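Dear colleagues,

As part of the handover before I leave the project, I'm documenting each prediction I ran so the next person doesn't have to rerun anything. This entry is a single chain, and its sequence is reproduced below.
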Amino acid sequence: LKMNPNVPEGHNGMGYIYEILRDFDQSFWHFHQAALLQSDNSIFIENAKRTFLILINLAKIDGDTKKILLISKEAQDLIYNDLELQLSVANSLSIMGLIEEGQKFTPDSTSEFTKLNIVEWDGHIVGSSGLLVRSEQGVGDQLLVASIIPELKKKCSHLIVECDRRFISLF
């Protein structure tokens, strides 16, 4: 990479090495470089997204809003094309008290929500549709939600539960 920094495969390989070493800042940087250099390679893009989410979650755990904003600025090309990343940044910033900053990343009514036909659940049987349970409150509320997860699983074919990483094994 020192001799030719424009080799996406080299950056992708370095991303894996840094990921193994748990240096997610360097891992993300290399995966992101690979994705920028070869924007049509879905593996490079998915690697960059994965490490971006790891960095966002680690910063959220540490309460580091500046890092979330910095990482999000670096990865704007990824974020604005991906609903999951938009929601992750918006939710992280909102939970940390930066509601206005978080709203900048929240999709508006003409964006991905409309394209995906995401609507608020009215409690009726979902059937073949999926259900996204958002984590908008604190850990106590998340524990209360955990008690209804088995019932929700019975009502829909696909269930996604957003929660604090400490509760992943519960859901």
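The beta strands are 127-133, 156-161. The longest helix spans residues 42-62.

All the best with the project,
I.
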